[in-house]
Amino acid sequence: MKKGLVILLLLFVSLNVFSQSTLGRIELRPEFFQKKLKKKQIKILKTAKTYFVIPDQFNNGYTREDYKKILDEVWTVNTIELITENEVEKRIKIGDVLFRFISRSVRLQGVKYVFNYFKLSEITLLHNQHNVDKVFSWDDNFYGGVFFTTHAGVEAEIAQLNDVVNNGLFDYRIGYLKNYFQQINNAISDSESYDIFKDYVDDEKIKTLKKVSLFIPENIIYGFTSPSASEKAEITKELFKDYTYNKTVITAEELNEKILNEKQPFYYLMYHQNNFHKIITVVDGVSGEIIYRRYKRVTYNIDFRDFKALNRIINKS
User: Per the confidence metrics, is the pTM higher than 0.90?
Assistant: First the structure.
């Protein structure tokens, strides 16, 4: 393998920071921990008013209208209202549900990790706004969200790249968010928790991949640099050597637009690295439905074994 390709793949190890949605009782200890929601918690999510707080950081310049458009399309489970961070203190009350972007860091065994995520939570207690520090805060129950997980050391490497990024959130795109919000909405509607660390296959819909092309965003394959044509050919040859079905590699922006505008079902592959865990999903870009999920512990990169495993499941269907 060429030296330049080795460097590219090593950089790719550090920069895989894609997101996934989940619904369940969540704790960050600092590791991610999840249990199924209870019936009364599902009922709260179905009946309480939900406030979606428009992010004022890491948002790629998306406006209130951008978020409103996708939420109007996909959020049907309860009444949802968009507010700003400045409005939170005046609007929320105990029993409301808050859908809000959070950025926090934790230290585990001497390593600092930065967690960026949309948090879906029930407000359980409002603290005194007139305390000594004059800081308005609340207690809540963490019921689900969309996770973008980043190693804090990644910023130095990211700074050397040409991509426009937000704290390493390369996949913070409004189309992707549309599908993640669909997944959460539909799970609440169906009264079903779902865990990103559980393998899953829709035995009927996975058969579709025998006939249609699987769309794959190129930054999953090539990282976030600009490899030469020969390097791309070498990477894809190795990666897809055991995947025998049709596939189409497109840019992340092309996939984003396809999710926003396509009317006919299509399927795309998404990859998530959560600290030391890898999650591969295949998603219906129109409905947001996940038809395949594979979880692997203590691993980073997407590699040929992931496509081999997917190929095997399609063969069996």
Answer: no
